[in-house]
Amino acid sequence: MAPERRRSVLVLATLQASFQRVAVEPGERPEHLEAALLAVVALQRLLVSLSGLSRLGPGAPEDSRAWVRLRELVSRGLGDLPAAMAGGPAPAPLPELAAAAGAIAARLEARAARHDLSMAREAERIAWQVAALRTAVGRMAAAAPP
Question: pLDDT of 95-106, one tens digit each?
Answer without folding.
Answer: 999 999 999 999
